[in-house]
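Case study 2.
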Amino acid sequence: MSSRPRRPLSNRRSLSRRVRSGKLNLLGLRADVEAWVQAADQDTRDNWQYATEFVRNNNLVEVAAEELGKTPEEVDELFELAKTL
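Prediction:
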């Protein structure tokens, strides 16, 4: 195993699919978000399923947060938690 130090993630403003799913689980939000996605239009479902990265200021993230009643601060928390992975 490499002993190289990990680069700091303090500016992380995007999430991989794996990190996104794990952090949504940690926050207890995954079921609600996935139900929202399933009820959304086909373009939204495709974006959710096939995107390899989720950027904080992306329209999909903003619309999902608003429709799920999440504040910008709560969304920021999700992206902040990504730093811990």
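Residues 16 and 53 are 5 Å apart (CA to CA).
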